[in-house]
Write a structure and sequence with these properties.
Layout: E1 10-13, H1 14-21, H2 25-33, E2 57-59, H3 60-76, H4 81-94, H5 108-120, E3 130-133, E4 136-139, H6 141-147, E5 150-152, E6 160-163, E7 184-185, E8 188-189, H7 190-198, H8 203-209, H9 214-226
Antiparallel strand pairs: 1-2, 3-4, 5-6, 7-8
Helix pairs in contact: 1-2, 3-6, 7-9, 8-9
C-alpha cells in the first residue's frame, strides 16, 4: 500500500507540471522558488516551498498544492503571497510538509482551525479557504473547486492519492502510482489516445484497440484538446 512518502516523490519537471496544471511555467516556478529581489526590491519568498531549493523537480505534494493555488489564480488574478502565511501555519499545526495535500484542513476541527488562522493572519477574504455563511463554516468556491478534483486516502493521514483534473465526473485521472503521474483513462495515457485520433485513426477503432468505451475515449480527447 502506498505511504505518505509518495507526497515527496519527484514526478515532474516544472514545465511538465505547469502543462498539466495549465498555468505558465514561470508562475509555477515563482510559487515553488519565489523570486530574488531585483534593483527595485520586488522579490518575494516561495509560496509552496519553505525556502528556495534550486530544484527543477516537482514532487507530488507540491503538484497537489499548486493545484490549490491555481484555483485562486483562475478566479482572482491576484498575488498569492498571503497564502504562504496560511500554508506555513498549517504546516506547523498539522506537522506535515504539504498541508494542502491532506484532508484535515478541509473538514471538521481542521476547518475551524483554518478559519481562526486566516483571521489571525488577516488573510484577504478572496484568498480564504473557509468563510462563515449563516453561522456555518463553509469552504469558499475556490477551495470547493479544488476539493472536487482530489481523492484522499481513506486511512489516516488522508493524503491526496489522485487528482481528477476534469472533475470526478470524468474518468481522466492523475495518479502518482500510474504512468509516472501523467493523465490516464483506465490506465491508458490520454496523450497517446489523442495522438492516435489526431493521426487519423477512427475514434471507434482507437476505442476498440485499447478496450475503451467510446464515451470514455471522448473524455480523454476532451481533456487533451482543452489544453490545446
Amino acid at each position: 500500500m502506498p505511504s505518505v512518502g509518495v507526497l515527496d516523490t519527484e514526478l515532474y519537471t516544472v514545465s511538465e507540471a505547469a502543462r498539466l496544471l495549465r498555468v505558465p511555467a514561470s508562475t509555477l516556478k515563482w510559487w515553488l522558488e519565489g523570486r530574488e529581489a531585483g534593483d527595485d526590491g520586488s522579490g518575494y519568498a516561495p509560496v509552496i516551498r519553505v525556502e528556495p531549493t534550486g530544484s527543477t523537480a516537482v514532487t507530488w505534494g507540491e503538484f497537489v498544492e499548486a493545484g490549490y493555488l491555481r484555483e485562486y489564480r483562475r478566479r482572482h488574478q491576484v498575488s498569492l503571497q498571503h497564502l504562504r502565511q496560511v500554508i506555513d501555519a498549517l504546516r506547523a499545526e498539522f506537522e506535515v510538509p504539504y498541508p494542502l495535500a491532506h484532508f484535515k484542513p478541509f473538514v471538521g476541527p481542521g476547518r475551524k482551525l483554518v478559519l481562526e488562522l486566516e483571521r489571525q493572519l488577516d488573510i484577504p477574504p478572496w484568498l480564504r479557504m473557509v468563510a462563515v455563511v449563516d453561522g456555518q463554516q463553509m469552504l469558499t468556491p475556490a477551495a470547493e473547486s479544488f476539493l472536487a478534483q482530489v481523492e484522499f486516502a481513506e486511512d489516516d493521514p488522508h493524503w491526496a492519492e489522485r487528482l481528477y483534473p476534469a472533475g470526478k465526473g470524468s474518468p481522466v485521472v492523475i495518479d502518482p502510482a500510474f504512468n509516472f503521474g501523467s493523465p490516464t483513462v483506465d490506465g491508458i495515457s490520454t496523450e497517446v489516445l489523442a495522438e492516435m485520433v489526431e493521426a487519423g485513426e477512427p475514434l471507434e477503432d482507437v476505442a476498440r484497440d485499447y478496450g475503451l468505451a467510446p464515451e470514455r475515449l471522448r473524455y480523454a480527447l476532451a481533456y487533451e484538446w482543452a489544453a490545446a
